[in-house]
From TrEMBL:
Gene Ontology CC annotation, any one: plasma membrane
Pfam (any one): GntP_permease
Lineage, broadest ranks: Bacteria, Pseudomonadati, Bacteroidota, Cytophagia, Cytophagales
Signal peptide stretch: none
Stretches that traverse the bilayer: 26-46, 58-76, 96-129, 136-154, 174-197, 218-241, 253-277, 298-316, 336-365, 377-400, 412-436
Main localization category: membrane
Membrane disposition: Multi-pass membrane protein
Keywords in alphabetical order: Cell membrane, Membrane, Transmembrane, Transmembrane helix, Transport
Descriptive protein name: Gnt-I system high-affinity gluconate transporter
Listed GO MF terms: gluconate transmembrane transporter activity
InterPro entries (alphabetical): Glcn_transporter (IPR003474)
Protein family membership: Belongs to the GntP permease family.
Subcellular location, record wording: Cell membrane
Length: 437
């Protein structure tokens, strides 16, 4: 009976978000309350479970996500993203222009949130397409595939960062495994798949072209790449170093402190504040204004994460998680595939990759105690599934359609299929890594 109640609540969540257009945070809260009542939790204790779930989810995340948003906004406003794009295009030349755009999308996609990155790179895509007389969709898909993969696979993006916290995974390992899977996935969904899109023609929308900053006002290419990738570098270095340091010594405690994702993001932001801000003669007030604006962009995302955490806690406190675990353990499917499939189903129904990933957590959590489940790979499996087949209920679908001026059919042939390739290739990469580690 409890399983049927959960299925009913999830179906109602999908209905609230898709049909009634209810805000996802409010939908999660209402469903958490309803699920608590239907599952027999004392009414007086429901709010306690909701508050605990929200606090647990956001407690480990808010520093990472907030600092990540600030770093991404500074990367964009300082011209570092523009410098990376210009420098890599000069390096690769016309022949490999798609690869230059793909690598640019990957580098700037790590600190930038998806919607910000999307709007930022659109003028670049149209400019390159016009300069080299190339179809805009063919030119842009590799870059947008890279942005999508970093959004779904790699911390400090909200969904993977939340999954790391929920599954108590190691963020450094998750990032390294994610990069290993992301590289072939982006190549497959980007330069290789885009060859089939040469016949899709999009009008050159000059409305979306922005005036670039003068070159003498830009940070150098080296500084731009270093500042953007510093969280990745620090997480990678501290993860490797922690494994080489003897247990029990004072150095181990120091490495544990430095490898904490929150500390990594604070250090990265401090460095970028100087390299991309103060060093470029940007006033501290201007930098702080940029940081303030970045938080406005992610406020709703944080609330949605908190709401998802509340629903997860209701499932735990009601005891239904154990029932779900027993049911899933009886299914002869690998847990990593199950996690991916759950995220796929919710993504196709709801549209939001973040909501899909966070909702799948509460369902798949009971199987995490199994010895054959790697928490870092489960993060990546659900992250890949959360990108499956973006269609008309996803804001990203309409962003792509409207910016490129495409029909719905051509948007499905390009954008939706690209996202599906990312999801499937991501799962294949997860399973290959699972067999090797």
């Amino acid at each position: 009976m409890s399983i049927l109640i959960i299925l009913f609540c999830i179906a109602l969540l999908v209905l609230f978000i898709t049909r009634l257009k209810l805000n996802a945070f409010l939908a999660f809260l209402l469903i958490a309350i309803l699920a608590g009542l239907l599952l027999g939790i004392e009414p007086a204790k429901i709010t306690g479970s909701i508050q605990k779930g929200m606090g647990d989810m956001l407690g480990s995340l808010i520093i990472v996500v907030a600092c990540g948003a600030m770093l991404g906004k500074l990367t964009a406003d300082s011209g570092a993203a523009q410098q990376i794009a210009t420098g890599l295009m000069k390096l690769f030349g016309e022949r490999y222009i798609q690869w230059a755009l793909m690598i640019t999308g990957f580098i700037i996609g790590i600190p930038l949130f998806y919607n910000v990155g999307f709007v930022l790179v659109i003028p670049l895509i149209f400019s390159v397409a016009e300069k080299f007389k190339l179809p805009a969709v063919y030119t842009g898909v590799p870059m947008l595939a890279a942005l999508s993969v970093t959004h779904g696979f790699l911390p400090p993006h909200p969904s993977p960062a939340a999954l790391v916290g929920a599954f108590h995974a190691d963020m450094g390992k998750t990032l390294m495994y994610g990069v290993l899977i992301a590289i072939p996935t982006v190549i497959l969904a980007g330069p290789l798949f885009s060859k089939a899109l040469k016949n899709i023609h999009a009008p050159m929308l000059r409305t979306f072209k922005s005036e670039p900053l003068p070159e003498d006002q830009l940070p150098s290419l080296g500084v731009s790449i270093f500042s953007s990738l510093l969280p990745v570098l620090l997480l990678g270095l501290t993860t490797f170093a922690s494994g080489a340091v003897p247990e029990g010594g004072p150095l181990k405690a120091v490495m544990a402190f430095l490898s904490d994702p929150a500390i990594v993001m604070i250090l990265s932001l401090a460095v970028a504040t100087y390299t991309l801000g103060l060093r470029m003669h940007m006033s501290m007030k201007r930098i702080m204004d940029i940081y303030g604006e970045s938080i406005k962009d992610i406020a709703m995302l944080l609330l949605i994460m908190g709401g998802a955490g509340s629903l997860k806690q209701i499932l735990i406190d009601s005891g239904v998680s154990q029932e779900i675990g027993d049911l899933l353990n009886g299914i002869d499917v690998h847990p990593l595939v199950l996690g991916w499939a759950m995220a796929c189903l919710i993504r196709v129904c709801v549209g939001s990759a973040t909501v899909a990933g966070l909702t799948a957590v509460g369902i798949i959590m009971p199987v995490m105690s199994r010895p054959d489940v790697n928490p870092e790979l489960m993060v990546l499996s659900i992250g890949a599934g959360s990108l499956m087949f973006s269609h008309v209920n996803d804001a990203g679908f309409w962003l792509f359609k409207e910016y490129f001026g495409l029909s719905i059919r051509d948007t499905i042939k390009s954008w939706s299929i690209m996202e599906t390739i990312v999801a499937v290739a991501g799962l294949i990469g997860v399973m290959i890594l699972n067999a090797l580690i």
